[in-house]
Amino acid sequence: MKYILETERLRLREFTLNDTKFIVELLNSPGWLQFIGDKNVKTEDQAKNYLENEPIKSYLENGYGLSLVERKGDNKAIGMCGIINRSDLDYPDIGFAFLSEFNGKGYAFEIASATMNYAKDKLNISKILAITLAENSKSILLLEKIGLKFIKTFCFPNSEEELLLYSN
Fold it and tell me: Domains of the chain (ranges plus CATH)?
């Protein structure tokens, strides 16, 4: 298995089509549905399609994307984190999501800060954005803790959902 980066407790690796069960679980977790939205990924076939058209496509097109976060001790998949290119943003943004049982243990900060360093040092991306909902207080705290600052509120084209935009 090729790892993108390792921290004290975690590893980040590219998703493979063997991760469909985890994708179904994560994309249907309460936090994902509340703060990211329903991606209509309920089956392993839908998860395979999501993986092929989102993270795996991004690896091929950009050389990076959302990746699987696993614990070193037991190789347990606990979340995702990575850098994303969105057509409606001027710069790449960092994204992350974790299964709820792994919240509050410092995992998100550990992998998000390592991902920020990786983006800057290895991918040579100097400006990184982040987006979140105003009610996602945990995400806001994490974004600020990894050095991002609030810039403005905005909506993506064809959406009325107001988002907060952060930048380093």
Answer: 3-127 (3.40.630.30)
